[in-house]
Amino acid sequence: MQKPIIILNYKTYLESTGDRGRELTWAARDVMQETGVRIIVCPQTPELFHHKGYGIEVFSQHIDPIEPGSHTGHVLAQALIHCGVTGSLINHSEDRMPLPDIKKCVEICRKNGLTSVVCAESIEKVREVSQLKPDFVAIEPPELIGSGIPVSKADPDIVRDSVKAVTDPEVKVLCGAGISKGEDVKAALELGTVGVLLASGVVKAKDPKAALRELVAFK
Question: What's the predicted TM-score (pTM) here?
Answer without folding.
Answer: 0.94
